[in-house]
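Box S2. Input/output pair 1.
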Amino acid sequence: MSLLVRNPDIVWRTEQRREQEVIEALERGEEVAERGTVILMFSGMMHQLNLVGGKIWALCDGSRDESAIVDLIAAEFEASREELAGDVNEFIADLLQRGWLRHDG
């Protein structure tokens, strides 16, 4: 099992109010994919992650592998594991390539 760990050089925070606004918009059926809820600061640059990306980021705390993260995201968003697995794995692969995440263990 290869656990996922965030790069400790990245400063990040969840924008709580913004996250709540996005959740409410999602419940109304609005498109929210482009709305950032998590801010990352790395190498003098600011990046935003959307709601799902932010949830995945927060779960990469060194205690879970990709499979466990897919399970948790599927449960939280009431979606099938099969529906989300490819997208979650692709997102994690992108963060690994950028050096924002690493495998531990």
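Box S3. Input/output pair 2.
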Amino acid sequence: MSRKQILVPDWKAFLLYAGLLSAFWLLMAPYYDLVYTVLGILLAVLITAFWQRELFPPESKLRLRPRQVIGLIFYLSHLLWNVILASLIVARIVLSRRPPIYPGFILLQTKLKGNMSRVLYANSITLTPGTISIDLQGDRLLIHSLTKQGARGVFNWYMEDMLRKIELNGP
């Protein structure tokens, strides 16, 4: 195997992924002790190393400017708030005597230019209870919505404008 075939990851990205997995492990941990914590961090590093070909393909380098990182953090905090609100709405719908459920599909044309931004937006829609992104082809999203109000909300969702300001670069 030649030197070009061996994948050497960007160490900052490697540490970022391993750190995120470790943080997720600690967030989900039922209790904290030294062995459990060290085991979680070790597993996060091993998983990142095992999946490095998929996580760090040589042809794709995602470079973020500090303004984009701040915008992305702001976007993710808004996404978390929207997920909480949508969860409460869906819970109210499910628990009501006559649920106002009118499921249907909508086709949405996004204004986002980058593929990474489009994928992030489609995943944001899926993470929000009551809506699921079914397909993403170019700038068109096929979305399933639980209610008419949810379908209208996707068309007017301010999160797309937030992503347009960040506009992630990438393949």
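Caption for Box S3: The mean pLDDT is 83. Residues 66-166 form a domain with the Ribosomal Protein S8; Chain: A, domain 1 fold (CATH 3.30.1370).
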